[in-house]
Amino acid sequence: xxxxxxxxxxxxxxxxxxxxxxxxxxRPTYSPQDVHSRHWLATRMAEAGLEASxxxxxxxxxxxxxxxxxxxxxxxxxxxSHAGWLDGAxxxxxxxxxxxxxxxxxxxxAWADEEGHFGSFLGSRxxxxxxxxxELDAARSRENDTRLRDALQAAGFAGQxxxxxxxxxYRGYLEAHIEQGQELEISGRRIxxxxxxxxxxxxxxxxxxxxxxxxxTRMKNRRDAGVALVRLASxxxxxxxxVAGPLTVWTTGRITLAPGAPSIVPGHAEMLxxxxxxxxxxxxxxxxxxxxxVAEAAKGPCRVSLVRGSRTAPRPMDEGFQSAxxxxxxxxxxxxxMRMPSGAGHDAQILASRIPAGMLFVPSxxxxxxxxxxxxxxxxIVLGCEVFCDAAAQILSRAC
Amino acid sequence: xxxxxxxxxxxxxxxxxxxxxxxxxxRPTYSPQDVHSRHWLATRMAEAGLEASxxxxxxxxxxxxxxxxxxxxxxxxxxxSHAGWLDGAxxxxxxxxxxxxxxxxxxxxAWADEEGHFGSFLGSRxxxxxxxxxELDAARSRENDTRLRDALQAAGFAGQxxxxxxxxxYRGYLEAHIEQGQELEISGRRIxxxxxxxxxxxxxxxxxxxxxxxxxTRMKNRRDAGVALVRLASxxxxxxxxVAGPLTVWTTGRITLAPGAPSIVPGHAEMLxxxxxxxxxxxxxxxxxxxxxVAEAAKGPCRVSLVRGSRTAPRPMDEGFQSAxxxxxxxxxxxxxMRMPSGAGHDAQILASRIPAGMLFVPSxxxxxxxxxxxxxxxxIVLGCEVFCDAAAQILSRAC
Lengths: 400, 400
Hints:
The structure is a homodimer of 400-residue chains. Chain A is of the alpha+beta class. Chain A has helices spanning 5-16, 32-47, 89-102, 122-127, 133-138, 148-155, 183-187, 225-243, 280-297, 319-332, 347-351, 378-399, and strands at residues 20-21, 24-25, 51-54, 60-63, 70-76, 106-111, 170-178, 191-197, 199-208, 212-213, 249-258, 264-265, 268-277, 303-312, 315-316, 337-342, 357-362. Chain A folds into 2 domains: 5-198 and 314-399, 3-Layer(aba) Sandwich (Aminopeptidase); 203-312, Alpha-Beta Plaits (2-Layer Sandwich), CATH 3.30.70. The first copy, chain A, has 12 helices and 17 strands. The radius of gyration of chain A is 23 Å and the shape is globular.
C-alpha cells in the first residue's frame, strides 16, 4: 500500500506555515506558533483515525488501533531559531502518513523541545521517565530566561498529565530525519540507514596566566594564557587525526581570551572542545589522549585545567530495524542507500534506552542544517517516506 | 639644589584623591574628578610661580620664567579605568617639583587623554598641531559613546583656545613615567633611560570558512575557520622567535570564533595581532614574515585576509637628553641604571615629532600596570625625581 506523496508534501508545507521564516521556519518550543502547530497536528492525527492528545510537556501523541505491540513513529515538531522546515517536521509527518497508509499498528508522536530551547530532548525524556519535577522547576529558556513552568502555563499544557511509556505496548520506535550532513549527497545515495547515534563528550579547557601590558612585558617574562591555548589547540589538531576513527569528529566551537584587548597579554583563556564517535572504547581513548595533551600543556608557564561538560553514550540502533530499513531501501532504490552513524543527537537515542529504535535519513541539500535554507529534494522526501512505510509494515508483519 | 621629597610625595598623594579607587585611581578624561584635578593642578602650578591655564582640550600648561629656551616637563594626568595612581601623575608632579626646585627655565604640562578615552594622545597631539576640528567632531568616548564635544562642554574647556607649540620656545621635552614592566626590578636597577619608544603595528586577521553542524560534518568536508586561525597563530608562535630581535614583543590579544557555540563548526574567525620594536627595518621584516605566513595559511580550505590597523613609527629619544639622564643617574646611583626602550606609547613620542625629547623610567613593583594595584617604592619615586631634576638642570645649563 503506497504512501500518498501529494498528501505528505501538502502536510509538510502546511506545517511550515506555523512560524514560516523565508523558506524556513522560526518555531521555538512553546512559542504561540509552536502551540498552534501542535493543536493542528493533534487534529490531523485525529483525522487519521488516531486517538490524539497533547500531554503536560507538549508531546502530541496519536494512539492507533492495533492488537499486538505497535510501532511508535515520529520526531520533534519545534525548530531551532530561524531554522529549516524539515528538521523534525519530516519525521512527524512521515509518522502521520504511515499511520494513514497502514491504518493500524502505529502510534504517532511529535516530541517537544528536542532542540533544547528549555532543556534537551525534554519531550522524549519525559515520555521515557527521565525528567523529574525538580528539572521542570529549574528549567528556563536559553533565549529569554522564561521559566519552563510559565511557558507551559501560557501554552495551556500545564494542567495535563505527562504521558509515560508503556514498553509492553511497543514493538519499537522508528524515526526519520534529514541527514544534516553531506555524506548522502556526496556519495550519490538517497537513503541512510542509521547504525548508531554517536556519543559525545564536551569539555571546557581553562588557561590561567598573568595579564600584562603587551608593550612593556618581554616575551621571556610572559605567562600568556592565549599562547598556551593556541599551543594546546594546535597539539590537538596534530594528534587527534592519528588516534581518531574514520568517522570521529572533533570541534573547538569557542575560544575566549580575557580581557580580549589588542594591547593586553591575555591572563585568562578558555576553549570549548568536543568530540563524537559511535565507539565507546574509542571515546575513552580520545579522552585519555586529551588528558595527556592537557598534562603536557600544563608543563608550560600557565595553569591548564580540563573541565568535563555534558557527555552522552553512543546508542546503537536495533539490528533488526536496520535490516528492515535496508531491505526496504534496496527494494525501492537498489544500491543507492548506505549504513551510516548519526553525528547529531535525536529523540531516537532517548527511546533506545527503553525500546528498540531505528532511524532513516534522507539527503540534505548541500548538508545545510539549522539554517532557514535547509532543504531536501521533493523526490527524496517522498522516496524516504515510501521506504519508511515499507520498513514499518515489514516490522509489524514480523511482530504479529 | 635638591628636590623636596616630602612635598613631592604629598602632591602625588593629594592628586590620588581625585577619583581614588582602592589604592589606585579611577579618573577617566573629562570625568568630574579629572576636571577637578586639572583645576587643582593649575592652582599648584600658579603657587609654584608658573603662569597656569587650561586650554581648549584640557591640557594644563604652566609657563615658567626664563630667558633662553626652556624645558617642557610633564606627562598626562587622567588615568585608565580603575587603574594606578602613578601612571601619568608621576611625570606631572615631577615637572611641578622640578619647576619649584629650579625656579626658572621650566614649563610644566599635564596632557589630556593620553590614555585614549576619546582618542589617543589627544592633548599632546593637539599641542603639536596634529588634531583638526573634524577629529574633535567625530570623537566619542570608548566607554559610553559620549561625544567629545559634549564632554569638553560639560568640563568647561570648550570655550578656550587650544594651545599649540612654539618650537622656538623649547629646548626640548622631558617626561618621567613608571616603567610598566619588570625589567628594572628583575635586574635590580632603579633608573631607566629610554632609548626609543617602540613602533607598533596592529593587524586584524580574518578567516572565512563554512559554518556547519559539529556532529554531522565529517572532518574531511570541513572548512573550519577556527582551525585555520589556530594553525596560523601556531605558525606565528613558532616563526616569530626566529626572526624577531631580542626586545621585540608580539601579542594576540583577542580571538573570536563565530557563531561561538559548542556544537557548531565556526564559519568565521578573527584574531587581533600586534608587534612592537624600536627598529623600523625589523618592523618591516616582521610584517613581511606575517604576510608570508598568512599567504601560506590561505592555501588551506579557508579564506584568510590580513587587515592592517593602527601603526606608529619608532621614536628615538634625543641622544643628548639620554646622556644627561644617564649622567645624572650615575651620580645618584652608580651602576644601578640602564638604557632601555619603552614598549608602551607615551606623549614623548608625539612631542619628539616637533622638539628633542627624552624619558626617564622608575621601577614598577611587580611590573603591574593599568591596574589599581600599580605602585612604585617611595624611595624610587624620590630618587627618580632627583635624577630627573639633575638632568633638567644640566640640560638647561648647557643651553644657556
